[in-house]
Structure formats: C-alpha cells, structure tokens
Amino acid sequence: MSLLEGRTAVVTGAARGIGLAIARLLVEEGAAVVIGDLVEADAVEAAKSLPGTALGVRCDVTVEEEVVSMLALCQQEFGSLDVVVNNAGITKDKTMRKMSSDDFRSVVDVHLYGAWLGTKHASLAMREQAEGGSIINISSISGKVGNPGQTNYSAAKAGMVGLTKAAAKEVGHAGVRVNAVQPGLIRTAMTAAMPQDVFESKLADIPLGRAGEPEEVAAVVLFLASDLSSYMTGCVLEVGGGRNI
Ligand code: NAD
C-alpha cells in the first residue's frame, strides 16, 4: 500500500535538486503532484520526467498571486491540496563586509517570505478540508548553527523555524500540520557551486563521513507528508549525517 495514494501535493523549486527528488518520491508513493518553479518549461519538463501524475507550472514563490494560483491549480486539477513543500531557494554567499542589502533582502525574500506565503495560503485552503493537510518547510542546518558567509541564508533559514512553529500552533486545531526539515550538505547544483576546498572541509564535520543525496531528504519529507507522522507538528528534523548535532 502506497503512503500517499489518492493524495495531492505541491512542491516549489522542484525543477531540479532536492525539490525534484521530493516530487519524484511523492509521485512514486501515489500522490498527484504540482511542480512550481521559475521557468515554466523547466517545471513542465521535470513533471514529464516523473513516473506518475504531475503538472509543471511557473511560480515565483515571492509573488503572492503566483503562489495562490499554483495552489488553486492543484485543487482544480486534482480535487484537493493535501501536502505543500516550500523548498524553493537561492544562495548569495558573501561575508557581511561584501554583502549588499539586495543580497540580503533577495535571499530572505525567496526563503522566508516565500515559505510564509506558501504556508499561509496552503493552510487557508487545507483548513477547509475535512482531512486537513501537511506543510513542510525546507530550512537548513545553516539556520541552526549559522554559517560564515551566509548571514542572509542563515537568517532566512532560522526564520523558517520560527514560522513553522508559530504556524503549527495557529492551524493545528484544523488538522493542518506544519513541520520543517533541515538538510545538511546535500549533493545538488547549489553545493556543486561551492569551491572544492570548502566542500571538502565540510565533509570533515560529518560523522557519517559523506555528503547526503537529495533522495535522503525526500524520504524524510515523505514521512512528514504521510500519516506516519500524524501526531507531529512544529517539529524540525535534521537530515545532516550527524553534522552540528
Ligand atoms: P537548487 O539550486 O538545485 O534548486 C533550487 C530550485 O529552486 C531551482 O529549481 C530554482 O529555479 C528554484 N527557485 C529559486 N528561486 C525561486 C523562486 N523565487 N520561486 C520558485 N522557485 C525558485 O537547490 P537545492 O540544493 O535543491 O535546494 C533546495 C532547498 O533545499 C533550498 O531551499 C535550499 O536552501 C535547501 N537546502 C539545500 C542544501 C544543500 O546542501 N543542497 C542544504 C540545506 C538546505
């Protein structure tokens, strides 16, 4: 029996990387999935590559109308909105000395404001459903410990933890669960952009001795999306190979 048979999900920033691995696993477990990403053609292509029911749409998570229409599309096409994964993200790493206000604001905008828009509008829709729903915010270990060169990203990812816990308290009565996942060092385009020596130095801090794969983050998201976690809300699950525990 699949874990998400008959359910529906929206995953943002899912044209590639961790988001795509999440979308693939949710589809494999029986969910009908909407992929939202910045470039429509990439989202459509990613949806086509999945082994089940999936649609791709353009959605910039910082634009409220686009978030609202992406969520509405899931309801219109698939009949409900059961799972929303706020995964879209960018990095603009620099020390504070070199970081501009725009570098700070744009990163906070995509991660924190984007996740707030997704959480707000998903919970508004889900609270009208008898079964409620599950919202999962992709934070980062960087939001737990703070990384030099990431004052923007660490602030945004820590903010997502506060958002997750506050929202969980507001909407739990309606059967809507809100949880967060904090990946550590995961092999994607985002980390491929890191200088090799920085990547290697991070490996030294990981008790499991290796970087994680997007599928290993997806497995934890599946757990939070499914009824296996039915009594969990406001939780932050680390997927970091033991890094920074
Ligand atoms: P990635 O760069 O491979 O993919 C990010 C996706 O988000 C891209 O498809 C991009 O187009 C999309 N995106 C960017 N801005 C957007 C916007 N405004 N609206 C909609 N989509 C947008 O990154 P990834 O490594 O797969 O990261 C996914 C998430 O996981 C991010 O939130 C990231 O911060 C988080 N994370 C990643 C790691 C890691 O090691 N890779 C670690 C911790 C947390």
A few lines on this structure:
This protein is an alpha/beta fold and about 240 residues long.
Overall strand count? 7
Pairing-aware structural class of the strands and helices? alpha/beta
Helicity, as a percent range = 40-55%
Mean pLDDT figure: 97
Strand order of the largest sheet: 3-2-1-4-5-6-7
Helical run tally:
9
**What is the N-to-C order of secondary-structure elements (H for helix, E for strand)?**
EHEHEHEHEHHEHHHE
The set of bound ligands, ions and cofactors reads:
nicotinamide-adenine-dinucleotide
What profile does the largest beta sheet have?
7 strands, parallel
Computed over alpha carbons, the radius of gyration is 17 Å
Contiguous runs where pLDDT drops below 50 for at least 5 residues: none
Question: Strand content of the residues, in percent?
Answer: 15-25%
Description:
The model has no long low-confidence stretch (mean pLDDT 97). Helix content is 45%, strand content 16%. By secondary structure, the chain is an alpha/beta fold. It has nine helices and seven strands, in the order βαβαβαβαβααβαααβ. 46% of the residues are buried. Bound molecules: nicotinamide-adenine-dinucleotide. Nicotinamide-adenine-dinucleotide binds next to helix 1 and helix 7.
What are the key terms here?
245 residues, alpha/beta, 7 strands, binds nicotinamide-adenine-dinucleotide
Detail the topology: elements first, then pairings.
Blueprint: E1 8-12, H1 17-28, E2 32-37, H2 40-48, E3 54-58, H3 64-78, E4 83-86, H4 101-126, E5 133-138, H5 142-145, H6 151-171, E6 176-183, H7 189-192, H8 196-203, H9 214-225, E7 236-239
Parallel strand pairs: 1-2, 1-4, 2-3, 4-5, 5-6, 6-7
Helix pairs in contact: 1-9, 3-4, 4-6
The structure holds nicotinamide-adenine-dinucleotide (NAD).
Nicotinamide-adenine-dinucleotide is lined by residues 12-13, 15-19, 37-38, 59-62, 87-90, 110, 138, 140, 183, 185-186, 188-191.
